[in-house]
Amino acid sequence: MKQIKYLLLIAIPIMISNTSASPDNKEAIKNKEALNNITLGVIVSGNNPEEEFKKIKELGFSYCQLGVAEYSPELAKRIRESIEKYKVHPTTLICMGPGKYAWNFTEGPATIGLVPREFREARIKRLHEGIDFCKEVGIPAVHTHFGFIPENPKDSLYVEFIKIMKEIGKYALNRGIDVYFETGQETPITLLRAITDIGTGNLFINYDLANMVMYGKSNSLDGLKILNKYVKAIHAKDGKYPTNPYELGKEVPIPQGDVNFPAIVAYFKQINFKGNITIEYEITEKNYEYIVKTKKYLEKLFSTTN
């Protein structure tokens, strides 16, 4: 998930036909029950909620993630009214910026999230505003990229980051809001350590399956096993491991990359995963043909994977 590209991320409901409860259909029933634990939605811009919510409802979605340019009481009221009118439920508020984000290995550590000192003050203010906006609208969580969290827990940047996040976590907790880490820049064990060290009890994970691969931090399944108890949302995206030491690995259409989707789906069933799955596609502006094709691919996996 990157800054601003809200309309590039689409989730399509996966439908499995009804099956009887006979012993021969136990596996099919199990597959259907796995999907009943999952909500599916679309990421939209919240700047025009009347139009956006109407459109996604017409497409059959009842859940969404929101990106908002400027927070205001007026916009909060419009979003609340759109939620009531269209029965579309925002699950998270994407809260990015302000300032530059460079999605690479050279500038990324100095520009992404709250780890870089240069952008902290403005981004902490933005997160506070986002948390307040969640409270006002009724959105349960805010999520963002927090940056290249240092692996060394004695690193001064790590120590500073933990202190900052304790304050943000408590600020959100006092307002009944959860905070989601968007994965990518840090190894799974580093993220697990950070959440443990912050320890406010309302920190969870929006797990991007491809980012673990594209940043070269882990294969997606092993990372998921390390972090699973904190994972509340999944971005279904595919990619390749990096070969250029200065650039991220390449995003590719599902299932052409290094994410093992059959193994991921099997693991979801094993752990009885409950959360949100969103198909993420940042290669082009909009590609509904790809989205429909990917829907059918995931539908087949959930219908056949043990």
Summary, kept brief:
This protein is of the alpha/beta class. The chain has helices at residues 26-36, 49-58, 73-86, 108-111, 120-137, 156-173, 188-198, 209-214, 220-227, 261-271, 288-304; strands spanning 9-10, 38-40, 42-45, 63-67, 89-94, 141-144, 178-182, 203-208, 231-236, 238-239, 251-252, 275-280.
Spell out the key features of this protein.
ten-stranded mixed sheet; alpha/beta; 12 strands; TIM Barrel; 17% strand
Largest sheet: 10 strands, mixed
Highest CATH level, the class:
Alpha Beta
Fraction in beta strands: 15-25%
Q: What is the element string, with H for helices and E for strands?
A: EHEEHEHEHHEHEHEHHEEEHEH
Distance between the termini: 29 Å
What layout of secondary structure does this protein have?
Blueprint (H helix, E strand, L loop, with lengths): L8 E2 L15 H11 L1 E3 L1 E4 L3 H10 L4 E5 L5 H14 L2 E6 L13 H4 L8 H18 L3 E4 L11 H18 L4 E5 L5 H11 L4 E6 H6 L5 H8 L3 E6 L1 E2 L11 E2 L8 H11 L3 E6 L7 H17 L2
Care to describe what's here?
By secondary structure, the protein is α/β, with parallel strands linked by helices. It has one domain (6-304): Alpha-Beta Barrel (TIM Barrel), CATH 3.20.20. Helix content is 42%, strand content 17%. The chain has 11 helices and 12 strands. The strands form 2 sheets. Strands 1, 2, 3, 4, 5, 6, 7, 8, 9 and 12 form a 10-stranded mixed β-sheet that branches. A two-stranded antiparallel sheet has the order 10-11. Helix 2 links the parallel strand 3 (42-45) and strand 4. Helix 2 runs parallel beside helix 3, helix 5 packs parallel to helix 6 and helix 7 (188-198) runs parallel beside helix 9 (220-227). The longest helix is centred in the middle third of the chain and has 18 residues, at 120-137. The chain is globular and about 55 Å long. The chain starts with 8 loop residues before the first strand and ends with a helix. Residues 4-17 have low confidence and may be disordered.
